[in-house]
Amino acid sequence: MSRPFPAWLPAMAFVLIWSTGFIVGKAVVPVADANLFLLARFTLAALMFALAAMASGVTWPALKQVPRHLLAGALMQGIYLCAGYGAVAHGLSPSIMALLGALQPLLTALLAIPLLKEQPSSRTWRGLGLGALGVGLVVLPAMQAGTPQTVSPWIILTGVLAILSITMGTLLQKTSIARADIRASSAWQNVGAMLVAGVLVCATGGIGALRWETGPTLWASLAWAAFVLSGIGTWLLLSLVRRGQAANAAALMFLAPPLAAVQAALLFGDRLAPLQWLGMAVAGIGVWLCQTQGNPRHAQAR
């Protein structure tokens, strides 16, 4: 008799995969324009999910539901990644962007109350608070070490837009599009993300005018981003959101910056301060509280 599938494994796999997005972003900066890279990433991911859906013979969403899938993908991946990459490229510190990202699970929990009638437990709120604190401790040394510079308020707002976008995209996954097969839905969602990246590529000069230096770094980063991050990572996230409360799934995002810091230390020689190790522990405890709260409670419909 085969052993039961560990319930924690999908969550752990998602966190490990999602955290590599920071490393990919850092690796592609010297070799490719961010929007063009994201357009290629979303295109490959859309093709992969479409082929998987057709090979499995799943039922595709009705045409009247397609705009919702496109919107969910445009928000959860297209605007989120394009705005996030763009804010960092125009001077916003990656540590500040990571700190803004720590607000996403809290915002998801707050908006899920009126929009999804999901009422997080007091244990979940404590976990969300600890998770945000942990991320703050992890990125604090990088913020202190960074060179002071004036960043336009519009760039900060672009970073905030990225967080609002992935929050709304996450919440949309709990609406009627949750009834669609994940492979078919993900194909359409990546098309929605493609539309966002495509508009930005056209607005910044077109494909021929943007940086695209082929080589092992670019191709390896693109393959990982398309098939692992947008492929396996997004599939795991959608599965987790559909199965439980949106806030609990979003809380896993707290572990991405700490794991990315460890990966940067291993790959790029970055040093980790004791405060960062403490932050990782605090964030881990926060996520543990969110994931072990018991049965979710739902707010009463008014």
Automatic annotation (TrEMBL):
Segments traversing the membrane: 7-24, 36-58, 70-90, 96-116, 128-145, 151-172, 193-212, 218-238, 250-269, 275-292
Keyword Membrane: yes
The entry's keywords: Membrane, Plasmid, Transmembrane, Transmembrane helix
Membrane is among the record's keywords: yes
Extent of the signal sequence: none
EamA domain ranges (all copies): 11-139, 154-289
Location(s), subcellular: Membrane
Cellular component per GO, a single term: membrane
Principal localisation: membrane
Pfam families per the UniProt record, alphabetical: EamA (PF00892)
Membrane topology: Multi-pass membrane protein
Domain of life: Bacteria
Name of protein: Permeases of the drug/metabolite transporter (DMT) superfamily
Record lineage: Bacteria, Pseudomonadati, Pseudomonadota, Betaproteobacteria, Burkholderiales
